[in-house]
User: What shape does this take?
Amino acid sequence: MSVRIETIGLATLYLGDCREIAPTLPRPDAIVSDPPYGQRQNTNVEGGAGRRVYNNPPGSGARVIERRAARGLHSTGECVRWPDAIEGDDEPFDPAPWLGAADIVLLWGAHRFADRLPAGSWLLWDKVPTGKVRDQGDGEAAWLNAFPPRPLRIFRLLWDGVCVGPAARHEVTAGQQRVHPTQKPEALMAWCIEQARVPAGGTIMDPYMGAGSTGVAAVRTGHPFVGCEIVPRYFDTACRRIEAAQRQGDMFLGSEVAADAR
Assistant: This one.
């Protein structure tokens, strides 16, 4: 097994199959992840009100950036064409290998595989707190291995089409360019770490790292992070995002030290 490994401050990132890599690593304190769960989702879809536009033909693998306005779909931003599908999303997700892999386990998309989970606690993400009616789901559920069940908690953050990106006018998501088709907001993953009650300094693993939102949240909150991603382009993106988060943290720490010295 040939695996590329990158160490970035508090983070150690592995390019490869998490099912092969994770058993060789020390046990983390927590697993916080958004795994693929069998949607067979074509990620290159735009449109609303019953109108759906597929941006690239099946099997093309093309990644093209076009101006949305030129195609009459939106008046702002750019349209990014992703690969045709998400790696591993063509079969139902089996959570069993991860349920005992850490003392704390939090998995997003769990409403899709709830029948394969033991009793636990639930978190919800309301993606459209504006109340807008949309053709996709209004939110997503995460399962946490906390039993007896804790109170259900809801995180409300608009994350909807043109409300995400550099041209967005929403105060929360403005400037957050989506770099992965099923990307989770960094603020959501920081909230997950808090809700999961990961102990201070505890190591967090994301075996399905994607573009690295969990890693960004982990290093910003002072947690060592271990991430696995099988797709090179998303792995490289995660490296850049986590390195930037680590650098920002180092700058903040340096400013605190300078302030204490005065």
The mean pLDDT is 80. The chain has six helices and 13 strands. Helices lie at 18-21, 68-71, 96-99, 186-196, 213-220, 232-261.
